[in-house]
Amino acid sequence: xxxxxxxxxxLSVQEGDSAVIKCTYSDSxxxxxxxxxxxxxxxxxxxxxxxSNVGEKKDQRIAVTLNKTAKHFSLHITETxxxxxxxxxxxASPGWGKLQxxxxxxxxxxx
Amino acid sequence: KAxxxxxxxYLIKTRGQQVTLSCSPIxxxxxxxxxxxxPGQGLQFxxxxxxxxxxxxGNFPGRFSGRQFSNSRSExxxxxxxxxxxxxxxxxxxxGDRNNEQFFGPGTRLTVL
Lengths: 111, 113
Known about the structure:
Chain A has 111 residues and is mainly beta. Chain A has strands at 4-7, 10-14, 19-25, 32-38, 45-51, 56-59, 62-67, 72-77, 86-95, 98-101, 105-110.
């Protein structure tokens, strides 16, 4: 089955710096790759996603890149702010209604 | 549109009991997926229902089951509860195509004593 690996597990950045989280997946049938942000005690919220016919997608300070050949995708957050502090999950969709999640990255943005 | 809702938000049960959790999807969404979230195992897929049919299933024992009603609301049931079933149970709804966005509910926090 699909296996998604996510690195790093924790990431500390200074406010204003960039943060990068990387994920790899194993199932070449996966065509959809969302990223979720989960704040403490809250539900996961979709922040950006990318489909396999696109190599890069950007939404304000957030961007995602996908390399289907290498089976990896990355989340880039620029100009980080304290409110970006949260756990971020990458996921791949290997089948109907199923998301296979990475283990998560705890991002801490210090002022 | 109203978001995904889940009831109850919190549950405390004892070992051996059974529990039923409910999920109401976003209006117009026909797919409901269920996930278990624990500190040790992260977010794990349980199963997905679309038009009242289970379309996909994760690697959980048969004690975990679900169903979906004609209005797309879904329930999941856990029988013979074990201590290890303590977790946050999240449901997510989507339109139902394979690459549609999934929107999560607030979750049900289950504690098994």
